[in-house]
Structures are given as structure tokens and as C-alpha cells.
Write a structure and sequence with these properties.
alpha/beta; 6-stranded parallel beta sheet; 8 helices; 6 strands; hydrolase; Isochorismatase-like_dom; Isochorismatase-like_hydrls; hydrolase activity
């Protein structure tokens, strides 16, 4: 009944040379976000927890986005970020999906539900609990969290497996917003809870 959704673990954010790497580097380093996320992914695989990867991609030219966008989509379009076929849109190597894992199709906006098949994938597996990790904390993760909450899922957000473009933004999101729409927690607390549950039911 639980799925872990890994949002936008792509080179643009995670890897030196990525267009948004300079913006996320500080938070990733301070929280150990990439190392924690990789460990969580391996844990989920080992325990048979449903893993869903949710990349964002645009066709060359970013014609999916309005001609004169504003806000974060303007930055993505102007910087030609996450362009299909470019190395920046490829998965971060340690977080690449393996055979049998689910990859969300159609994400070209902020919320992981809008324009995608994520809801279908979750409902097909009778998922009730959704764990969210990824980028950006106060953008795509937050948009997905709010939508998942309104759809009736129990949502968990991971302080140590998410990253914003600054520590103040990262901390403010969890301090002021995330508790209204999710259970803010850490990957350590999640893994411990799963192991306790296993011990109780075995």
C-alpha cells in the first residue's frame, strides 16, 4: 500500500555541469540529499516497496511551455533545461530505474500528477501511502504533495531527501507549509518504521 516517488533525479539538478546544479548544490551537500536518496532507493528495492521515478522532459524548443512564460517555467525554457535527448535530462546515474520499476510519463509541468499517468500507476497498485523525495522542495515536490493530499493519499515528505535552491527556502517549506499537507519526516525514520512493522508482522 506504499509507494516512494522519486521526483526529477536528473543531471540538470544532481550533477556538475547540469544547468540547475549550481542552484541546488549547497542544499544537497548540507543535507546529504543524494546519498540519503540513493540509500532509500536501495532500501525500497530490497523491501519490495513500490518505486516510481518521475522525470520532467521537454521536446527541443520547449514548445510545451507558453511563448512568453513567467516564473520558473520561463527559466526552464530560456535555459533549455530538461530537453529530451540532452544529457541534462538523463537520470542521475545512481538513481537510474532498473527493470520492472515504474517511470511516470508526460511530466512537463510542476505537479507530478498534472498531465501524467502517476495517479493511474498508484491506483492500479492500490497505493494509499505516498512517500515523496526529490526536486525542488518548494516547487515540484510541494505541488505534488498538495495534489496527493487532496486526492486522499497519506503523504510523507522527506527532509533529508529533498532539495530547494537555498537552505532558507528548504527550511521554510518544511517549517511553514509541509505539515499542512503531509507528514514531514526523514528517510531514517521511514526505514526504521518499515523494519519495525516487519518485525511485528513476521
Amino acid at each position: 500500500e506504499t509507494a516512494c516517488v522519486f521526483i526529477e533525479y536528473q543531471n540538470e539538478f544532481t550533477t556538475e555541469g547540469g544547468k540547475l546544479y549550481p542552484a541546488t548544490k549547497e542544499v544537497m551537500e548540507k543535507t546529504g540529499m543524494l546519498e540519503n536518496s540513493t540509500k532509500l532507493l536501495e532500501f525500497c528495492r530490497g523491501k519490495g516497496i513500490c518505486v516510481i521515478h518521475c522525470p520532467i522532459n521537454f521536446e527541443p524548443g520547449h514548445n510545451e511551455i507558453a511563448e512568453k512564460p513567467y516564473g520558473i517555467l520561463a527559466g526552464i525554457k530560456d535555459g533549455s533545461a530538461f530537453e529530451r535527448g540532452d544529457s541534462g535530462s538523463e537520470f542521475y546515474e545512481p538513481m537510474k530505474p532498473i527493470e520492472g520499476e515504474l517511470v511516470v510519463k508526460g511530466k512537463s509541468g510542476l505537479c507530478s500528477f498534472a498531465s501524467t499517468n502517476l495517479d493511474f500507476l498508484l491506483r492500479q497498485r492500490n497505493v494509499k501511502n505516498v512517500i515523496l523525495a526529490g526536486f525542488l522542495t518548494n516547487c515540484c515536490v510541494e505541488s505534488t504533495m498538495r495534489n496527493a493530499y487532496e486526492k486522499g493519499f497519506k503523504v510523507f515528505t522527506l527532509k533529508d531527501c529533498t532539495a530547494a535552491t537555498s537552505m532558507p527556502a528548504q527550511e521554510a517549506a518544511f517549517e511553514h507549509n509541509f505539515g499542512m499537507f503531509s507528514v514531514p519526516t526523514t528517510s531514517k525514520e521511514i526505514t526504521e518504521a518499515v523494519e519495525i512493522m516487519e518485525a511485528v508482522t513476521s
